[in-house]
Amino acid sequence: MYELSILSLVALCLVSFIGVPHGSFDGAVAALLGYQSKKKFLIFVLCYTVISIAVIFFWIQFPTLALFLFIVMSIVHFGLCDWSFLKIKKHKWVISLTHGINIIFGIIFFHTAESFQIFTFLSNQSFNYFEQYLFIVYFLFGILFLVYCYLSINLKKLRWGILEMIFILIIISQLDPLTGFALYFCFVHTIKHVYAILQNTNKYLENKKFVFTTTAVFTILTWVGGCIAIIYLNNNFSFSESFIKTIFIGLAALTLPHMTLIDFFYRKKFN
Predict the structure, then answer these.
(1) What is the pLDDT of residues 47-72, one digit of tens each?
(2) Which residue in 51, 22, 48 sits closest to 35, CA to CA?
(3) Which of 53, 99, 154, 230 is the most exposed, fewest CB within 10 Å of its CB?
């Protein structure tokens, strides 16, 4: 049985009400990419929904693999967002992987036991097997960070990246893993993402009402879906367990279509 502390509960509420809605701007992103007509936008919404539902079913059937892939996707997506925000065209994957591993495995490094307890609960089986391979990721991060520092000699913007990563590590070392993740997700990743999207929508989209309406509708639908999931899961789990499963399986379901849209289509056009 996994029970959330008051702080962790508040953290997941932040993820629900601040972090998750940042993906609701995907409707505006679709419009930026040319899906503004009613027919094209409906096709976009249908594809997005089908992918999300497919991820949920995949998680139910293969929870351990799904969680592992979700961790990998999170590293790549968070890293690419940080790389994009730095506005450096070169060294894309060195910068992205360094930032992505820093947040995800920074949490795991400082809170290994608690992190693996959460992973075990989410995957329905012991995740401790992977603990013996953590040194590989830490070694890889060490090499990437050294290369990153070397690149910062000539790329001054990377010096801000180094300071940001160190600051993030200090913060997450002092907090439980869920709270540390929530603060990064809501107040670093979300702010960077929304700032970039709003810059482009203000510049390239004349219909500002469309941006507000689609974002609001997608946010409300996500919240309603989350509430339904919690009520359904509450038949077999405690509220804490239902909440954490809904948040992370829901995040995984939304991350795949969101990441596909942002990292494979949007960044090609606007980076």
Answers:
(1) 999 999 999 999 999 999 999 999 99
(2) 48
(3) 154
- Count Cβ atoms below 10 Å from residue 110 Cβ, excluding itself: 17
Distance of CA 106 to the CA centre of its chain: 15
Indicate yes or no: pTM above 0.85: yes
Nearest Cα neighbor of 108 from 79, 75, 73, 82 is 75
The runs of H, that is alpha helices, within the chain are 6-14, 26-32, 38-61, 63-86, 92-110, 112-123, 134-151, 157-173, 177-184, 190-204, 208-233, 239-261, 267-270
Token code pair at residue 243: 């909440």
Report the C-alpha gap between 227 and 169 in whole angstroms: 32
Domain residue spans of the chain: 6-270
Give the rounded distance of the alpha carbon of 205 from its chain centre: 26
Q: What is the pLDDT of residue 23?
A: 92
Q: How many CB atoms lie within 10 A of CB 201?
A: 21
Distance CA 127, CA 119 (A): 6
pLDDT of residue 1: 60
The count of other CB atoms within 10 Å of the CB of residue 89 is 8
